[in-house]
Amino acid sequence: MTIPVDSLKVAIEDLSWQCDPALFDFETTANLPCLEETLGQERALAAIDFGLGMQDSGYNIFILGEPGTGRSSAIRKILSRRAVSQAVPEDWCYVNNFQDNTRPLQINLPAGNGRKIHRDMENLVVRLAEEIPKVFESKEYEKHKNEITGEFQEKNRRLFQEMDESASEQGFILQRSVNGLVLVPVRDGTPLTQQDFENLTAEERSDLDARGTVLQGRLNEVHREARDLEKELRLAMSTMEKAVLLASVGHLFEELCDRYAPYPKVIDYFNNCKKDILERIDEFRPNEEPAIKLPGFKFGSNERPTFERYKINLLLDNHEQQGAPVIYEANPTYFNLFGRIDHLIEMGNAVTNFTMIKAGALHRANGGYLILDCRELLLSPFSYDALKRAIRNREIKIEDVTEQYRFIATVSLKPEAIPLNCKIIIIGTPELYYLLHHYDPDFRKFFKTKAEFDGRMDNSQENARQYASFVAAKCSEETLLPFAADGVARIVEYSVRLIADKKRLSSRFLDIADLIREASFFAGRDTAASVARKHVDLAGEARIYRSNQLEQRIQELIDEGTLLIDTTEAVVGQVNGLSVYQLADYSFGRPSRVTVRTYLGRSGVINIEREVKLSGPIHDKGVLILTGFLGDRFAQDKPLSLAATICFEQSYNGVEGDSASSTELYALLSSLANVPIRQGIAVTGSVNQRGQIQPIGGANEKIEGFFAVCKNRGLDGTQGVIIPIQNVQNLMLKEEVVTAVREQLFTIWAVASIDEGMEILTGVTAGVRQEDGSWTADSINAKVDSRLRQMFEALKGAADSKDKE
Questions:
Q1: Cβ 355 vs Cβ 308: under 8 Å
Q2: Which residues, in sequence order, are bridge partners of residue 504?
Q3: What is the pLDDT of residue 301?
Q4: Contact by Cβ (8 Å): 86, 529
Q5: Where does the pLDDT of residue 407 fall: very low under 50, low under 70, confident under 90, or very high at 90 and above?
Q6: Which of 141, 169, 312, 755 would bridge with 766, disulfide CB 3.0–4.6 Å?
Q7: How far apart are CA 592 and CA 612, in angstroms?
Q8: Beta carbons within 10 angstroms of residue 791's beta carbon
Q9: Taking 80 as the threshold, does the pLDDT of residue 193 lie above it?
Q10: DSSP structural state of residue 22
């Protein structure tokens, strides 16, 4: 049976899809409303809405998708609209912990009140610095001080006067010495010398010693009482000073306590401030300045007292915030996320205090939303693990992450943790999502919401109109020239080409936006009022020209004959395969010569690329499938006995993919049947063991690559490309290719089986299997079967001869 080859030709209308400008009922996009919603991502938007609605801390969102699909812009729009109607989060402050100044305390206040209390405490510090020194210079203070001092001096005088009188009665007087007061015996009003004392009788000395011992005991008691009086004096003086100081500054705190009465933590802080001021009264008492001052040196006891410790560190000020915060942290280092503690270098030492605590992105996003880039997060040391701890413990803790790596422990601040109430959104690629999901057990606990952005959407009229609104929005946002209807239609066609599927539109809006900008540039250079189809074509051509230098170099090598590619005549065991070169953001197709040689042997099909390690595993799989096909079709009544080598000629780099497996099979069958293949036809497509052709990628680039070679050599109507029939819906060919096919200068066939392809390539019928197991006479399959049988008989005869010897 002969296959009608003409029926395998792809119809002109199937070579490309055209968007009708009449679909758009506008003159230019300036008349269109801008696109507000995210286009073509219904599944992802539903997942995001679910994740934002779940209050559990584990339902944070991971948005995955390829870059350019609108992930970042979509989530920002969604969160911005959602956040406006939500409550403004509280202000957060850090204050000094007077019990342990290495552990500052946090205070939360309604939005706007943090700024007020910060200003009030700044004013309080100024007032304290003014009022407290005046207390010790006031007449009232001097009066109370003199009264207390005079009272205790009088008590002290009477105490020692009584002691002096008691000593006189016992024949002693009190004299001062370097060791303090001492008892000296007297006679007739004159103190006894040592000689006078030795001249006394033993009885007199004994009596004098006894009286002296009693008096010495009494003197010791007087000294103790004097010391007690000194303590009482200091206590009374301190009590008086505290009372006077409290009377002077207490009203300042009373005003603040009245103002912030609804906030117990603030009132506690004010009370602690007053208590600390009273405990530091010795620092406030004026002292004499040192006789000699050395520049740069501080003398602790003579320094002027500071009131910085009573200030408030306004960590987070939300007084201007409208709704919940939406924070995008582009550089999620540990300190940018969790905040930091600054230090100052003084006298060679790093010093810090609670006023040097700085907020991070988590603090700013608390009560709202935080958006992070997954790749940047994973590249930043400590950030990812610390983020998981914050989610697990529901608190933001500022820590010195390098502390555990130091050889010597140093004193640092450990601020009180702030409760975390934030929805965290991470944006990344599918590869990163599945890696984290597989290798990190915590990931699936804390990021339970998966929102996947698709790279394509249905090619419907509604979506095409939405595309027009997207173009209008981009033109409005960036002040670009408006697009005419045919310009928008060309953008939609470019989108279909980008995704390589007539039934789909691309969601890679980054690439679409770039084309919009570039087309507007060419329209502006053309002094056009709007962007038309020709300007979009100019932008596309210019983009290709900027990137296709290597493509042109390869074309030159083919034109010069350096790379051997035949486009005329027919050759046995040789066919033009098609491959795609991917260079960053640009890809193109070019033909490659594939040759097969068959001969007697039992080694089977040998892939030369594999033998020299230039073949990838998928390509190796494709070659092994060829043996399965031959065995299934031709080795049911005899062993498969052959040796064949397959080679990509002039290929010096690795070969990967199975899209050339049908190409290799065509050449293999041609070599076995000894039937030449038309060199003006290139082929692509993978094949299974049953001989069915399977779809491949890059169909447009492959066809256009071979067309360019044929065009340079001259189109004669015999050239063309064979593709899998499933790839017809992927065709979005350039206009010059469609024109050549329309003028019958170039042909594109779509096949479903190896037999269909062989008939196109050789012009010989493929043949069908008869009831007796034979094939149609003079067909390709009959010739192959006959050749394999001859090879088997030859090998069998050679083996029998060897056995007889």
A1: yes
A2: 458
A3: 45
A4: no
A5: low
A6: 755
A7: 18
A8: 21
A9: no
A10: G
Compute the half-sphere exposure of residue 702: CA atoms within 13 Å on the CB side of its CA.
27
Q: How far apart are CA 794 and CA 567, in angstroms?
A: 36
Distances (CA, A) of 623 to 120, 554, 688: 81, 27, 10
Which pLDDT score is estimated for 296?
46
Q: Report whether pLDDT(288) > 70.
A: no
Adjacent-strand bridge partners of 174: 183
Pull the structure tokens for residue 99.
Answer: 């019990």
306-352 pLDDT tens trace: 888 999 999 999 999 999 999 999 999 999 999 999 888 887 788 88
Q: Checking DSSP bridges between strand 61-64 and strand 423-428, what pairing results, if any?
A: parallel
Nearest to 48 by CA among 30, 38, 33, 63: 63
Quick one: tokens of 106?
Answer: 């946090």
pLDDT band for position 300 (cuts 50, 70, 90) = very low
* Helix, strand or coil, per DSSP, at residue 713: helix
Q: Where are the beta strands (DSSP E) in 117-207?
A: 172-177, 180-187, 190-191
651: left (phi over 0), alpha (psi -120 to 50) or beta: beta
φ and ψ at residue 504, rounded to 5 degrees? -130, 155
Q: Which residues contact 432 (CB under 8 A, 6 or more apart)?
A: 64, 374, 375, 378
* Contact between 669 and 758 (Cβ < 8 Å): yes
The span from the CA of 805 to the CA of 786, in Å, is 29
Q: Are 114 and 89 in contact (CB under 8 A)?
A: no
Asked if residue 354 lies in contact with residue 415, where contact means CB atoms within 8 angstroms, the answer is yes
CA distances from 259 to 92, 117, 182, 270 (A): 18, 10, 62, 12
pLDDT digits (tens, 9 = 90+) for 605-654: 877 777 777 677 887 887 888 888 888 888 888 888 888 888 888 887 77
Closest CA to 552 of 598, 588, 577: 588
Q: CA 184 to CA 208: how far, in whole Å?
A: 10
Here the tokens at position 276 are 């600390």
Pull the structure tokens for residue 655. 């070969």
* Locus of tokens 């609104």: 469
**Local structure of 266: helix, strand or coil:** helix
71-113 tens-digit pLDDT: 999 999 999 999 999 999 999 999 999 999 899 999 999 999 9
Tokens matching residue 302: 């003579």
Question: Cα separation of 483 and 518, whole Å?
Answer: 12
Quote the CA–CA distance of 506 and 493 in Å, as a whole number.
10
Helix (H/G/I), strand (E/B), else coil: 157: helix
Q: What are the backbone dihedrals phi and psi of residue 80, each rounded to the nearest 5 degrees, phi first?
A: -65, -45
Query: pTM for the complete prediction?
Result: 0.82
Q: Is the pLDDT of residue 284 over 90?
A: no
**Buried b / exposed e across 260-294, counting CB within 10 Å, b at 16+?**
beebeebeebbebbbeebbebbeebeeeeeeeeee
* Alpha helix (H) residue ranges in 354-484: 361-365, 374-379, 383-393, 430-439, 443-446, 461-477
* Confidence at residue 299, expressed as pLDDT on a 0 to 100 scale: 47
CA 312/CA 322 separation, integer angstroms: 24
Task: Give the residue from 749, 664, 679, 760 showing the smallest Cα distance to 713.
Answer: 679
Strands 172-177 and 180-187: antiparallel
Between the two ends of the chain, the Cα-to-Cα distance in Å is 47
Question: Quick one: pLDDT at residue 802?
Answer: 67
**Residue 506 forms beta bridges with which residues?**
456
| Token pair in block for residue 381 | 């040391």
Nearest one of 98, 78, 423, 65 to 274, comparing CA atoms? 98
What does the alpha-carbon distance between residue 330 and residue 333 come to, in Å, rounded to a whole number?
9
pLDDT at 14 over 70: yes
| Phi (first) and psi of residue 597, to 5 degrees | -125, 130
